[in-house]
Amino acid sequence: MTAPSPTTAPVRWILGLSRVTPGDRIEVWEHRQLRCTGTVSQVAPHLGVLWLLEDRTGIPRLATLRDHRLRRCPLRPAA
Asked: Where are the beta strands (DSSP E) in the chain?
C-alpha cells in the first residue's frame, strides 16, 4: 500500500498554533472565503494569534484562531 501524494492529501485545518512557526505558508479563511495567503512572520500561541506577510501585497496581517479558519497552503506540483 502506498502513502497518499502530498498534493492529494486531505486538507487539515489548523486547530492550535503550537506547531505553526515563522516561515510556514498558510491560508486565512473567513466566512468560507479565502481572505489571504502568506508567510508567517510571528506566532503568539498563548494568545491564539499570528502575523503573516500577505503574498499579494507584502503587508503584515494579523490572523486569529477565534475569527478565522487557518490551514497550511497546499503543496503545488513542480512545473
From this structure: 13-14, 25-30, 33-44, 49-54, 60-64, 69-72
